[in-house]
Amino acid sequence: MTLLDPVRTSRLSARDVLARGESGARLDVDDAEILLQADGADFERMLELAAAVRTAGLDAAGRGRILTYSRKVFVPLTTLCRDRCHYCVFVDTPLQLKKKHKPAFMSPEQVLAVVRQGQAMGCKEALLTLGDRPEDRWPEARAWLDEHGFASTLDYVGHIARLITAETGMLAHLNPGVMTLSELEQLRPTAPSMGMMLETTSRRLFAEPGQVHYGSPDKDPAVRLAVIEDAGRARVPFTTGILVGIGETIRDRAASLVAIRAADEAHRVDGPGGRRLGHVQEVIVQNFRAKPRTAMQGAPDATMREYLAAVATARLVLGPRARVQVPPNLSDPRELELLVRAGADDWGGVSPLTADHVNPERPWPQIDELAARTAEFGFTLAERLTAQPEYVTARTEWIDPGLHDAVALLADPATGLAKPETSPHAASARPPRTELRLSPAGGGRDLGVLLERAAADPLAVDDAEWERLLSATGSDLDALTATADDVRRYTVGEAVSLVVNRNLTSTGFRAAGAEGPDTFDLDDVAEIAADAALLGATELCIQGRLPDGEDPRAYLAIARAARAAAPTLHLHAYRPQDVWDLADRGGLGLAGALEALREAGVDTVPGTGVKVLSERVRVAVAPGDLEIDRWEEGITAAHRAGFRSTSVLFYGHVETAAERVAHLRRLRHLQEAGGGGFTEFVPIPLPGPAGGVPLVAGRAAIDEHRAMVAVSRLLLSGSIPHIQIPWTRVGRADAAVLLGAGGDDLGGTLLDGRVKPAAGVEHGQELSVTNAAAIAARLFRPFRLRTTDYRTPQHPAPGSGAAE
């Protein structure tokens, strides 16, 4: 965002300040202000010096070239808040909660359902984030706390933190906003670390009407600085940081960094290796990202140069032993190396399970991808705990004795980092103190218990129980879909996503030239791809077996033609059946075919071409489909070759409930074997007025779909993250209903474009971005465009999407 106040002038140049920094001089606010404006050769030198200072600090700590992260689950305990920040999409009002069918606070059962899934995935941190003191503004929050026996939101935070460690062995990191010294001391026994962003020392942004923090009592910078000071007095390892680009001046940024350093220095004690250790365990330098439907939705984000300058200046102001954290999901993947060059040494919390609920439009990177990128930068990625390693090794001073055993179980005693390949386990088996939340009228307590188990540990639910849930009706079905939607909400988040794409059915290819409106040649491929890109598409989906009379090398020629005509398009191309055709008729073998497709420009592959993973069903309804074992071999080979894919189930044929359950279980197995290759699952019903053959006689088609979507969400949770609703099969109105049964994605726009061919079962069906966003808005959920692999598009074309 444009900085509103003029910056001060100084007789010192950036070169002078850098020379002082290189000599080890202590930099003040004036120095930091100059560095934040460095450009040209001074800017490059600043990055070099920041990187050198960071490396010296890592060497002094005995860490060498190690960058750290924490494997976490993100627990949004409540989205009610007494503040009114003008850039926030995290908070809700009670009316919004009611419209979303969302509770005022997550129940202990809902928390444990998420945390236990994270525990199974090796997560060691549970990040509790919530609004500030909502009971001071909202009677509904006060009523919930009174009903459940808690004196305050912070009292409930402490209860949940204790429960998480007792039930799972995971460690809580508390981020509940402003706290007094006594509240910090009361919460210290529940968590090894806590945090609160300073954001900025700018009083103007707090006191001036219309500014981002106006009307938010907890954003008074004096109050927030007092919390940071009190955390030092309470000996709490504390995370804080600045938010870059919310209207603060460059001077404000400089003052904020120096204020954080001063607070840390005021509470330093002797630490390991003679280090004077302060309580500020890490400083986050976070770049502002504008959110739709906020007062700042039109404000420009800070430029990358501004952000890099802030990271490098933070490093030079805070010194070599500080930990400077940058959130990897808030920058484009290609920008991460620049952040490392600027002196960052920590990626913060990254979740393999839950969304970033504060920035729902910015998905986390895959942890293995983050490790690979970190290695490309010349560093090793290492997992840490909620508290940075220095505080773990000095835990007698910094961590409450009641947590020492829990920390020791997860920490490497020599380094203080997380033990490699260690998963948390429960320290005890104490049950939650509150009653079960689910007690549906139709099924009673035993259904509530089953749903709670399905939400927390899907692999512990047996086949007969899943079949029971697939056959649910009435209030039992309502309870099932509500539970599935809770799991969706608290794992992948609230956003409804959509990719702008176009389909091309390769069955219609004719090397000798098109024969009609449903066929095409290579020249047509180029026109189709270029047209799709001009219309704003980010994906071209190509699938379908070539006719026997066509040269199988045409699969490669089609991909090359599309790639040459539209280099920015993501090519999502060729089912296992198509790949096998290239492998067999082309004489390449499966591995050779996949390598050839990669060289031709294919990015990901569709996991279609199978109805149900059952030979009985295939022979009965689709004998021309690839045999099940060959489909599995093909998709597994694709995943191992580095291709990610979709996954599907076509239901409503002759399959039984048991075969549907077996299909979902098999997908989970393939997901584990393939290293997480499936990006999404699409439950696709048979077309027709009845929606296929129902599992339950007389059950309405929409209820068939609700049960299928809900069970898919629950059974695949923690394995395949996204459940896509096939709007082309169920219609837009029913798609909205199914998004409330656990779905989070609407698939693609399916642009027909302005260039032939007119082919495929979905030709003529388009969903515009505007209409998709309207579906999400009616559900009071955010909408986001995505790429094929669920990243954020870099440069979506203006007005992208189908015609209205």
Strands, helices and their partners?
Layout: H1 14-22, H2 29-35, H3 40-60, E1 66-78, H4 94-100, H5 108-120, E2 125-130, H6 139-148, H7 153-168, E3 171-175, H8 181-187, E4 193-195, H9 204-207, H10 221-233, E5 238-244, H11 250-265, E6 269-270, E7 276-277, E8 280-287, H12 304-318, E9 324-325, H13 336-341, E10 346-350, H14 367-376, E11 380-384, H15 389-393, H16 395-398, H17 404-410, H18 444-456, H19 463-470, H20 474-490, E12 496-499, E13 501-505, H21 522-534, E14 539-543, H22 554-565, E15 570-573, H23 576-585, H24 589-600, H25 615-621, H26 628-640, E16 645-651, H27 657-673, E17 678-685, H28 701-716, E18 722-723, H29 727-730, H30 732-739, E19 745-748, H31 769-778, E20 783-785
Parallel strand pairs: 1-2, 1-10, 1-11, 2-3, 3-4, 4-5, 5-8, 8-9, 12-19, 12-20, 13-14, 14-15, 16-17, 17-18
Antiparallel strand pairs: 6-7
Report on this model:
With about 800 residues, the chain is α/β, with parallel strands linked by helices. It is about 40% helix and about 10% strand. The protein has 31 helices and 20 strands. Strand 13 (about 500-505), helix 21 and strand 14 (about 540-545) form a beta-alpha-beta unit. The model is unreliable at about 425-440 and about 795-804 (pLDDT under 50).
